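Lab notebook page, bench 4
Experiment: in silico fold of construct C2
Operator: M.H.
Input chain length: 218 residues
Purpose: comparison with the prior construct
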Amino acid sequence: MIEFRHLTKAYRTTRGSKVIVDDLTLTLPRGAKVGVLGRNGAGKSTLIGMIAGLVQPDSGSIRRHGAISWPLGLGGSFHPGLTGAQNVRFVARIYGVDTEALIDYVAAFAELGDFIDMPVRTYSSGMKARLGFGMSMGIAFDWYLVDELTAVGDSRFKKKSLALFRSRMQEAGILMVSHSINTIRTYCTSGLVLDGGRATWYPDVAEAVEVHERNMAA
């Protein structure tokens, strides 16, 4: 489960206070497949960041039951001066998994070849994305946080990545931000709609999409 207890977050802007969530109390059940919906600037990525522990709420708390991934799709996740293997080793130690096993898995899955032992600053954006995706799939998380799912590489690698992602989702929960409603419908069965500082959970993703599209049209 993921529990939000009186969660509140706002930002100061030149136009005043921008409320992301206001006194949110909600429990997402174990294994829920949740699409996070809202117009641009509603705070979807901020909410994902708070769940990940990267953004601090103004008040209230989030209780996380189970292992939660870092946000897939988040840029700047690697130390550029370290090699790919060293970055993987660092993550493995944080999450308490077998270091060499994770390096072997990521090296094979991401198809980085000798680049696994090269500094990440020498990687292309696609190589960085493959490294990050391989790391996240190499650890059995209970919840995956996804901020814009992007399949990288050629068509064969994209097919392989999406097949693996779908298999992981059978056993884990997911909170997904995506501008693609079709992607939300494909991977999610429920929805969390952010609008005007309110966050409302809908057990049926079709209802969540309908409410979101109504908000967008208003």
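Observations: The first strand starts at residue 2 and ends at 13. Strands lie at 2-13, 16-28, 33-37, 59-64, 68-72, 143-147, 173-177, 190-195, 198-202.
Next step: discuss at group meeting.
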